[in-house]
Design brief:
alpha/beta, Rossmann fold, DNA polymerase, domain 1, six-stranded parallel beta sheet, two-stranded antiparallel sheet, 9 helices, 8 strands, about 15% strand, Haloacid dehalogenase, HAD_sf, protein tyrosine kinase activity, HAD-like_hydrolase_sf, PGP-like_dom2
Length: about 230
C-alpha cells in the first residue's frame, strides 16, 4: 500500500449541510482522460526509458503529479531527466487532449450545482493551463469560480496548496465545502485544508484502501447526488 499520512484526518468533522462549496479533482473524477493519458505515458516510458508497459496497467498513475510517476520508474533520476520525461509526455498528451470527455452524468451535475448557487472550483495536479483548456473543451469552465493546478514545470504541484487556492476562490466555509476526487492525494490535500472528501470510484483508479480513508465514497453520479443531498 502507498503511504498515507493519517494525521490529516484526525481533526476532521463531517461536513455541514446544505453544502455551499464543491472542489473537484479533474482527471479520473470529472474527466475520463484515461484514453489520452495512458497511451501517452506508455509511449513515453518506451521511447525514453525502454520500459514496456501496457497502457491499461498504468491506471494508478492517473492523478499523481508526473514527477512522482517518473520517479517511481526511475528512482535515481535527476531533475534534468525528469524534466525531459515530462516534456515528452506532455507533447504526446497535448496531441490527443481534445479526446478528453466528461464521465456520464457529470455535465448535468455540474450545471445543477451551478444553478443552485453552489460555488465550484477545480483543484488538480495537472498544469493549470492544461486544466483550463480541458475544462473549456468539456464545457464546464463556466461553472467554476477558479481552475487551480500546478505550474507548468510541475515543480509546485503540492495538492494541499492547490486545494487551498481553490478553497479561497470559492470563498465558502470549510464545514460547508466538500472535495470530490478519485485518489488518496485528493483526500490528503483536502484534509490539510480541513475538508472532507467524497472519493468517486467510476474511473477505476483508486485502490480499495483509498476509499476507506475518505469521508464517503460514490460509485455513480446518482450516489454522489445523494451524498451531496441534492
Amino acid at each position: 500500500m502507498e503511504s498515507f499520512d493519517e494525521s490529516v484526518l484526525q481533526d476532521l468533522c463531517a461536513p455541514e449541510f446544505p453544502i455551499s462549496g464543491v472542489l473537484w479533482d479533474l482527471d479520473g473524477t470529472l474527466t475520463d482522460s484515461a484514453p489520452v493519458i495512458l497511451p501517452a505515458l506508455a509511449e513515453t516510458l518506451a521511447e525514453k526509458l525502454n520500459i514496456d508497459r501496457e497502457p491499461a496497467s498504468l491506471h494508478r498513475f492517473i492523478g499523481p503529479p508526473l514527477r512522482y510517476t517518473f520517479h517511481h520508474f526511475v528512482p535515481s533520476a535527476d531533475e534534468e531527466l525528469i524534466d525531459e520525461l515530462i516534456a515528452t509526455y506532455r507533447n504526446k498528451y497535448l496531441a490527443q487532449a481534445h479526446n478528453t470527455v466528461l464521465f456520464p452524468g457529470l455535465a448535468e451535475l455540474v450545471k445543477g450545482l451551478y444553478e443552485r448557487g453552489i460555488r465550484q472550483a477545480i483543484a488538480t495536479s495537472k498544469p493549470e493551463k492544461q486544466a483550463v483548456k480541458v475544462a473549456q473543451g468539456v464545457q464546464i469552465a463556466y461553472a467554476m469560480s477558479a481552475i487551480c493546478g500546478a505550474d507548468e514545470t510541475e515543480s509546485h504541484s503540492d495538492k494541499g496548496k492547490i486545494v487551498s487556492r481553490a478553497l479561497k476562490a470559492v470563498g465558502t466555509e470549510q464545514q460547508n465545502t466538500i472535495m470530490i476526487g478519485d485518489r488518496h492525494y485528493d483526500i490528503h490535500g483536502a484534509g490539510l485544508n480541513g475538508l472532507c472528501t467524497v472519493l468517486v470510484t467510476w474511473s477505476g483508479n483508486a485502490a480499495p484502501w483509498e476509499a476507506d480513508k475518505a469521508w464517503a465514497s460514490a460509485d455513480s453520479t446518482g450516489e454522489l447526488r445523494k451524498i451531496l443531498e441534492l
